[in-house]
Amino acid sequence: MGTNFYIKTPYTATQHIGKRSAAGMYCWDCDLTLCKGGNNEIHFSSLASHDKKWHLQCPNCDAKQSEESLTKSSIGRELGFNKSEPKRRSGVASCSSFSWAMEPADYINLTMVKDTFITDEYSRVLSIKDFKDVLKECPIRFYGSIGTEFC
To answer: What is the pLDDT of residues 112-130, one digit of tens each?
Structure first.
């Protein structure tokens, strides 16, 4: 489950930027996932085995997870329940990851073209600023899918 984002300029075909996905609990103060396997295991650790594969508090500062509802969590955002403004958080709370499908430098260059806009897979249109806000909720970034079409 996640949301794909695309960029369109007046001079180019629509291009896949990448995909935002819920990525579990994260210590926003320490910039550290609570997944025991680290960033590369986030999307491969089931919640059913939560106690075995996820720390219950930050292993660096011992901050405990905050209570989250679907209207405030990253997973709630992917499911359409969290409509709040995306933002960087503090303490231990859920986060999203972003898997780049295009080179970030190419994305930056395209954002400088007048009348460029971003859409998601649900045809919602975002400004460049709005998409920057989306990325604030994605402290974990993956670059292994650059140049690959993925869903």
So the answer is: 999 999 999 989 999 999 9
**How many residues are present in the chain?**
151
Using CA atoms, how far apart are residues 55 and 50, in angstroms rounded to an integer? Answer: 8
Enumerate residues 6+ apart whose C-beta is below 8 A from 127. 117, 118
Q: Are strands 92-100 and 32-33 parallel, antiparallel or unpaired?
A: unpaired
CA distance 32 to 10: 39
Listed by start position, the domains of the chain span 3-142
pTM to 2 decimal places: 0.88
Please count the other Cβ atoms lying within 10 Å of the Cβ belonging to residue 11. Answer: 10
Question: What are the DSSP calls for 16-48, one per residue?
Answer: EEEEEEEEEEEETTTTEESBTT-GGGGGGS-GG
Q: Which residues pair with 88 in a beta bridge?
A: none
Angle at 133 between CA 115 and CA 23, to 5 degrees: 125
